[in-house]
Design brief:
This protein is an alpha/beta fold. The protein has helices at about 15-40, 40-55, 60-75, 80-95, 105-115, 130-135, 160-170, 185-195; strands at about 5, 120-125, 150, 180, 195-200, 220. The structure holds ligand L4RZE5RM and magnesium ion. Its cofactor is Mg(2+).
Length: about 230
């Protein structure tokens, strides 16, 4: 079987600043109103209840919202936060409050790989619905159709090799056929431990100092999707 691509989002297909300076502040601002309006819906309540449990049990929605806002400030990759953020961003994309900028090399490469028959998948800490929203509203159009599979922290955390083993089992093929693209060395280390091939995206806009030598920890290093080979 040939190569299969698995890509991260933040720092890999889209800038860190889009996620930190646009998406996270939007979610932070919109969360109180969202919880007031939708907090009784079972699909929302179950995530709010998980946050309450982490807070030691029963607590008010105001406390839950403050907890979630604190987690946003810490960039915590908690599955409940990520699920709720995705629901909040839905309104932002639908109202055209923002679109998702991709690095300019990303859409052409994804389309070319797709046209060449290379399977494509996403693995992000953002929930699968949030991933689909982002790729459905990029500045290069709706790219959801290029992807064959989507993975989030339901398979486990991104620095844990077992997450990549689960992805390999679900995505199909051998782990060694999967090429994981990410800006985070610790994620690439975990993917390599699971047998995947790895490519470090080292984008100047996100990482002003090039990560050469030890800083790349043996992972193939590129600055653009145009330079990814497999
Ligand atoms: C699905 S877009 C939002 C990305 C996000 O919430 C996040 O935490 C970024 O994580 P990634 O694993 O893509 O670096
Ligand atoms: Mg990333």
């Amino acid at each position: 079987m040939g190569a299969r691509i698995l890509t991260d989002i933040e720092g890999t297909t889209s800038s860190i600043s889009f996620v930190r300076d646009v998406l996270f502040p939007y979610a932070r601002r919109a969360l109180p109103g969202f919880v007031r309006e939708h907090g009784d819906e079972p699909d929302v309540r179950r995530w709010l209840d998980q946050v309450a449990v982490e807070n030691g049990g029963v607590c008010s929605d105001d406390v839950i919202v403050e907890t979630l806002q604190g987690w946003i400030d810490e960039d915590r990759k908690h599955t409940a936060l990520k699920a709720l953020q995705g629901m909040v961003w839905d309104a932002g994309y639908r109202n055209a409050d923002f679109t998702a900028p991709l690095y300019p090399d990303v859409a052409p490469a994804l389309r070319a790989w797709r046209d060449a028959g290379v399977p494509l998948a996403v693995y992000s800490s953002g929930s699968v619905p949030a991933q689909k929203l982002l790729f459905g509203h990029t500045d290069a159009g709706d790219l959801t159709g290029v992807f064959d599979a989507w993975f989030d922290t339901a398979v486990g955390h991104k620095r844990d090799a077992d997450s990549y083993r689960r992805i390999a089992a679900e995505y199909g093929g051998n782990a060694g056929d999967i090429v994981f693209l990410s800006d985070i060395v610790e994620e690439l280390d975990a993917a390599r431990e699971a047998g995947m091939r790895t490519v470090l995206l080292d984008r100047r806009a996100d990482y002003p100092t090039p990560r050469m030598g030890n800083a790349a920890n043996g992972h193939t290093r590129v600055e653009s999707f145009a330079d990814v080979t497999f």
